């Protein structure tokens, strides 16, 4: 498959000054595909700060002859995988011009030439059949399914309850960083596809993101030990639970549900009407059932397609 750009379009690399343009573009695509935008300028900048990502090398813009931005592409060397997320998209007015095929060919050629990992993982909305059919035709296989789940807070949520001996509170800067990092690494080691993250990388993804909220984030302790935690963002789109985990010895005590109710309550008190999160649809720990019990519903179903470049 050749990665020839269709006639009538031009390609260029990005600079940091393109962040707002890319944010606006993703918003147009998301509004068409999902009914509303939910990706902020700070999300774009956080993507570009990821370890293993080089903006000038790993992303591209495609313009029509009249100067209209037609497509944005982004591939991230995530270590074991070269990951392409749903922010790689084509403007609704240009989806019949071969730009989807160019994106795929560009990612494959780029992965062969530039990245150490040779397995591509592409995350796409299962409802976008033009994408899913292309991957199936080109030798990709389905590796896993993910859900975005959401709750709309039309009324005051249930109050959180914890068994005696546990204390739940907001995240405290200068006190909780290392302990919460260690807690969440341990909590996710029995989740499919998890690899421990170095502290600096993990810390950057939250503490350098202006939309991360220590007030909405939750920490659960027993004595001096952190046994569970949730890290939460607040953007124009609502609340977003970036990660929520309970260490294995403390599961089955209702801690996960209590953290959800606390987060919902804190959001409701601040007039944040929606809270979402992403989850493995086939979670080995039963996370989807927990979120459904808390009142969350599936909003979007994503599929991860993979292909090893020979």
The total count of strands amounts to: 14
CATH topology of the largest domain: Aminopeptidase
Number of domains: 2
Order of helix and strand elements from N to C terminus:
EHHHEEEEEHEHEEHHEEEHEHE
**Unreliable runs:** none
Shape: globular
N-C termini distance: 13 Å
Strand content: 25-35%
Helix content: 25-40%
Query: Mind describing the biggest β-sheet?
Result: 10 strands, mixed
CATH domain class name of the largest domain? Alpha Beta
Structural Rg: 20 Å
Q: What is the annotated CATH architecture of the largest domain?
A: 3-Layer(aba) Sandwich
Please report the number of helical segments.
9
Summarize the structure.
Helices cover 31% and strands 31% of the residues. It is α+β, with helices and mostly antiparallel strands and 310 residues long. The strands form two sheets. It has a ten-stranded mixed β-sheet with strand order 4-5-7-14-8-13-12-11-10-9, with helices on both faces.
Task: Please tell me about this protein's structure.
The chain is α+β, with helices and mostly antiparallel strands and 310 residues long. It has two domains: 9-139, 3-Layer(aba) Sandwich (Aminopeptidase), CATH 3.40.630.30; 150-300, Aminopeptidase, CATH 3.40.630. The chain contains nine helices and 14 strands. It has a ten-stranded mixed beta sheet, with helices on both faces. A four-stranded antiparallel beta sheet has the order 1-2-3-6, sandwiched between helices. Strand 12, helix 8 (255-269) and strand 13 (274-280) form a beta-alpha-beta unit.
List keywords for this structure.
310 residues; alpha+beta; Aminopeptidase; 2 domains; 10-stranded mixed beta sheet; 31% strand
């Amino acid at each position: 498959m050749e990665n020839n750009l269709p006639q009538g379009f031009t390609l260029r690399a990005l600079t940091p000054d393109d962040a707002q343009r890319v944010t606006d573009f993703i918003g147009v695509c998301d509004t068409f595909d999902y009914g509303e935008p939910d990706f902020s300028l700070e999300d774009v900048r956080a993507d570009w700060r990821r370890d293993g990502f080089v903006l000038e090398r790993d992303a591209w813009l495609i313009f029509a002859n009249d100067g209209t931005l037609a497509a944005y592409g982004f591939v991230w060397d995530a270590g074991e995988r070269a990951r392409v997320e749903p922010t790689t998209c084509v403007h609704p007015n240009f989806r019949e011009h071969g730009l989807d095929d160019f994106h795929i060919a560009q990612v494959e050629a780029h992965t062969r030439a530039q990245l150490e990992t040779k397995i591509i993982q592409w995350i796409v909305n299962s409802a976008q059949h033009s994408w899913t059919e292309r991957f199936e035709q080109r030798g990709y296989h389905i590796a896993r399914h993910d859900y975005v789940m959401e709750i709309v807070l039309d009324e005051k949520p249930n109050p959180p309850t914890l068994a005696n001996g546990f204390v739940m509170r907001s995240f405290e800067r200068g006190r909780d960083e290392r302990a919460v990092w260690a807690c969440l690494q341990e909590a996710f080691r029995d989740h499919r596809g998890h690899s421990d993250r170095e502290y600096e990388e993990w810390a950057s993804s939250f503490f350098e993101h202006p939309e991360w909220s220590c007030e909405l984030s939750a920490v659960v302790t027993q004595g001096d030990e952190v046994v569970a935690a949730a890290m939460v963002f607040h953007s124009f789109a609502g609340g977003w639970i970036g990660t929520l985990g309970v260490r294995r010895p403390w599961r089955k005590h209702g801690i996960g549900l209590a953290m959800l109710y606390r987060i919902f309550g804190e959001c409701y008190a601040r007039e944040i009407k929606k809270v979402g999160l992403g989850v493995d649809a086939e979670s080995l720990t039963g996370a989807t059932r927990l979120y459904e019990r808390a009142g969350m519903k599936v909003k979007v179903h994503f599929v991860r397609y993979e292909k090893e470049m020979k």
